[in-house]
Amino acid sequence: MKINSSLEYLLLRYKENKLSQSNLIVTDDIDKCVSELKIVVKNILCSDTFSASCDKCNICHLIDENSLSNFIVIEPDGAAIKKEQVSTLMNKFMLKPDLVNNNVFIIKNAEKLNASSSNTMLKFIEEPSPYNIGFLVTNNINAILPTIISRCQITKVNYNEEIIEDEEIIDLASVFVDKIENDYYNALFFVKENLLSKDYDKDRYILLLRKMLDIYYEVLVNKINEFKSNNDNFMYLNNLNYDILNKKVQILTGYLDRLNYNVNMNLFFDSLIVEMR
Question: CA 20 to 30 Å from 21, out of 103, 127, 249, 275?
Fold first, then answer.
């Protein structure tokens, strides 16, 4: 079974002994991502060379049934993931694994960790056993405790995202980000002359903000994963610290939501520019 290329990259990192012990996976399809992530786990825990048709051991079957003692999937218990669930995971994974080389856990819908369980999870990943590998899977990175985010390697796994191929929108988004960051006083003029004057429909403005969000998000992920953006057009964003980048991502996400309602576009962009600064 072919899996998402981002998950294949995680597997490659493991084979190179470079996989982080704590991984935050941001995806637009949690169920599909967890299903494919189990294939990654099978590769990690396989005692031989993994094959989908292999019948040498029972590891894969136990993983599919969530019956392997060294593999745990935590899902929300009702509306939230509770502290007791994380505490149980911690207690089980304090010891060296017996049947396999690693203990592996998946936190499904990690955005539903509440305040208490988030703090317990933070303590768990701050003091990891050398045998533990964890994957926190979410569709809303903004709902994750920032201190947890900062201790994880982030991987974006998209299945349904439409690729923005509109060259005009791509160029406008790039210039708009540059104006906001480097030419604040002319940013409003840019909006008036290049955005509002063209009388775009709402879908075009949504594409514009999505592309801007992609730009900031890429730099944020690279910063957390401790390497700089390889996009020369946005090298100046590398000078922003994690907290500022994260705040800008949250602002753009909020403004994207606003576009689902009737808004005055002039006031919309005025407010956006002020908040982004």
Answer: 249
